[in-house]
Amino acid sequence: MPSPLIDTVATLLAGIAADVVMPRFRQLAASDVSEKSPGEIVTVVDRAVEAALIPALTALRSGSRVVGEEGVSENPDLLHGLDRGEVWVVDPIDGTTNFVHGREDFGIMVALLRDGEALMSWIQFPVNGGIAVAEHGSGAYWNGARLQLSERDAARPQALRGVVKTGFMPEPMRSRIDARAQRHVADRIPGTQSACGDYLSYARGESDLGLYWRMLPWDHAPGSLLLTEAGGHVARHDGSPYQVAMPGTGLLVARSHAVWQQAQRELLQP
User: Fold this and answer.
1) Can you give the pTM of this predicted structure?
2) Looking at residues 249-253, what average pLDDT do you find?
3) Is 7 flagged in the annotation as binding?
4) What sign has the CA pseudo-torsion 233, 236, 241, 247?
């Protein structure tokens, strides 16, 4: 039985989506958008959502703290201690570029960690009001319906279909994986340009895999719990376990362990 906290946070996110996010969707002024680092944009809505979530989430769990994308961009030291105590990891607007350009693939992502392990996660989609939630040991759900990848989903596909992100990889690794993907990934899809949309696609069995280089906790902690609770597999490129608090690079996610092994062999092994 999922914890009552699942519904409490889901209601909180729905309210923030309605009150803070949607009134500004397709209504942003040029001055509402800025570049926080080369190639990384932020809006007044990202900051407003995170500011609203910090007191609301910490009030739900005594002694907890929030580590949000925008807070870390201002103070990277906030990332220290992700493996100690209860920590809310927050991406206030995942898919900011989509949001800025009026595209609907964006969401609010939250995960609750305890000593570095993800206990629960939420992915709220403001435009359609949908929500994906997961709790360790209690399953994954999309709008209240259980997400459970089937035996068909677990089977190795004849040819892989999925998201292969190489933009942040160093050379010659990027060129090598791009070449392998051209041979082995029959349908290399661009994805939704948002971690929230991509992880929901994996958990629903609509895509086989996602290959990533950067492992920012707000991008992967919520979705990785959703996918693993649905029956998928998440691990580092070398097969070692994914741990939210562990620094480093290289993550491979797949709709099953068998598909993960196929993708790892065809894309990553020497």
Assistant:
1) 0.96
2) 97
3) no
4) negative
